[in-house]
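Dear H.,

Thanks for agreeing to be a second pair of eyes. The structure we're designing against is below in token form, covering all 341 positions.
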């Protein structure tokens, strides 16, 4: 069995989960692990200490697989260092948004389009967290009944914007509780999010673009088309930030090409890889972020038909955005690559 030299670039929220997943959930045989960030430091993750090195092109000498944690919404380290890593013989798996929609770079969700990895030329893109959980949940239905239309509203946790956003959530929540709702929190820390997140919900993730949709909403459209190889699906999205630490939730409405009953959809989804169905509303059982945090699967519930449209179907989908929505999906891509070699 080949033993791989692996690099992890970035030690933010996703970078930490990459290290955890490599240790606990990876089938890769690791010979050497290097961790890179802007500056040299010691990093302790779950009682294990890592020697973090300042990133440089030479640091990728001898690396087989380079996992870039990525920075949503801005240029990530992969823009600068991915070409250097590839030049030195590494395959790059990037979690950032810089390469996802490039036509010659595969965008992979292993449960949906694993065959696309064969098209890589040294760089493979990891999709947006919200896209990942949606396509994992919809792909089994798409294969059975086809999908004409998707209407999705996502309720996205603070951790999706990084550790700074989590800190803002905790501080604002503490301030509101301390003042008894008498005033809005001032939060001494630098604001990471565009609005108050403690005890608040706002529909603004990313920057506003054409048709008044945000970049996060367009990602769900374009990335889904690319992953599912079907640009004919009509997709519209609203992405909101909610005062949850970790775990994105989605209310997804689909119009299928062929009618499919909720019971049939449950059977299909229950058998699908990477999905866990929790759908007993009569017993108050359905997916929730508080129950899904730390789990690998995409959780689906509230599967029900539209009483006014025979091919309409609703699903409620929840996933840990840092694990399957980012780190684990990247590790699974690395596993696909290793299996080919």
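And this is the sequence the design step returned. I haven't edited it by hand at all.
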């Amino acid at each position: 069995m080949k033993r791989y030299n692996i690099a992890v670039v970035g030690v933010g929220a996703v970078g930490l989960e990459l290290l955890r997943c490599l240790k606990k959930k990876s089938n890769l045989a690791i010979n050497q692990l290097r961790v890179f960030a802007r500056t040299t430091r010691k990093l302790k993750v779950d009682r294990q200490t890592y020697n973090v090195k300042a990133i440089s092109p030479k640091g990728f000498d001898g690396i087989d697989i380079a996992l870039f944690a990525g920075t949503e919404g801005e240029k990530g380290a992969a823009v600068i260092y991915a070409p250097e890593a590839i030049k030195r013989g590494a395959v790059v798996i990037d979690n950032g948004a810089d390469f996802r929609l490039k036509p010659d770079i595969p965008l992979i969700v292993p449960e949906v389009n694993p065959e696309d990895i064969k098209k890589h030329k040294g760089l493979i893109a990891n999709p947006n967290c919200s896209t990942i959980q949606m396509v994992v949940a919809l792909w089994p239905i798409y294969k059975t009944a086809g999908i004409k239309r998707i209407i999705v509203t996502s309720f996205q946790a603070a951790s999706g914007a990084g550790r700074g956003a989590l800190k803002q959530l905790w501080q604002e929540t503490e301030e509101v509780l301390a003042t008894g709702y008498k005033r809005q929190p001032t939060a001494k820390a630098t604001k990471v999010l565009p609005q108050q997140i403690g005890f608040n919900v706002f529909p603004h993730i990313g920057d506003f673009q054409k048709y008044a949709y945000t970049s996060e909403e367009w990602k769900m459209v374009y990335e889904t088309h690319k992953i599912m190889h079907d640009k004919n699906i009509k997709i519209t999205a609203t992405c909101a930030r909610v005062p949850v630490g970790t775990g994105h939730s989605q209310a997804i409405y689909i119009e299928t090409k062929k009618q499919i009953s909720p019971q049939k959809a449950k059977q299909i989804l229950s058998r699908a890889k990477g999905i866990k169905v929790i759908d007993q509303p009569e017993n108050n059982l359905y997916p929730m972020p508080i129950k899904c945090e730390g789990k690998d699967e995409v959780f689906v519930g509230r599967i029900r038909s539209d009483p006014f449209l025979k091919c309409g179907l609703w699903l409620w989908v929840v996933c840990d955005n840092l694990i399957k929505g980012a780190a684990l999906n990247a590790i699974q891509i690395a596993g696909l690559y290793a299996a080919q070699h």
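Two observations from my side: Residues 131-320 form a domain with the Dihydrodipicolinate Reductase; domain 2 fold (CATH 3.30.360.10). The first helix runs from residue 13 to 24.

Warmly,
E.
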